[in-house]
């Protein structure tokens, strides 16, 4: 959900607003009640977290390599 905030309040409360945007909130900045700009979380932050998660998964996969035979044996054990 996007909240509206006047340009004066946006200027005076910018650090607080940026903390809230960092947590995922969005704002429409208005001037005399007319929408002027949208302040939304950056997609770059999401991309960085996704890249970090992918790297963690890749590292874990490299450490714990399981052969097809081992995987089949594990599946068979789970069925008993």
Give an overview in words.
With 80 residues, the chain is an alpha+beta fold. The protein folds into 2 domains: 2-39, 3-Layer(aba) Sandwich (YefM-like fold), CATH 3.40.1620; 44-79. It contains 4 helices and 3 strands, in the order βααββαα. The protein has helices at residues 7-12, 14-22, 43-63, 68-79; strands at 2-6, 26-31, 34-39. Strands 1-2-3 form a 3-stranded mixed sheet. The radius of gyration is 23 Å and the shape is rod-shaped. The mean pLDDT is 86.
List keywords for this structure.
80 residues, alpha+beta, YefM-like fold, 2 domains, 3-stranded mixed sheet, 4 helices, 3 strands, 21% strand
Write the layout of secondary structure elements.
Layout: E1 2-6, H1 7-12, H2 14-22, E2 26-31, E3 34-39, H3 43-63, H4 68-79
Parallel strand pairs: 1-2
Antiparallel strand pairs: 2-3
Give a brief rundown of this model.
The protein has 80 residues and is of the alpha+beta class. The protein has helices at residues 7-12, 14-22, 43-63, 68-79, and strands at 2-6, 26-31, 34-39.
């Amino acid at each position: 959900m996007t909240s509206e905030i006047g340009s004066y309040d946006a200027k005076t409360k910018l650090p607080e607003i940026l903390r809230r945007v960092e947590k995922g909130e969005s704002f429409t900045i208005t001037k005399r009640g007319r929408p002027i700009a949208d302040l939304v979380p950056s997609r770059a932050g999401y991309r960085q977290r996704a890249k970090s998660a992918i790297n963690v998964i890749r590292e874990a996969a490299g450490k714990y390599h399981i052969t097809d035979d081992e995987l089949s044996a594990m599946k068979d054990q789970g069925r008993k």
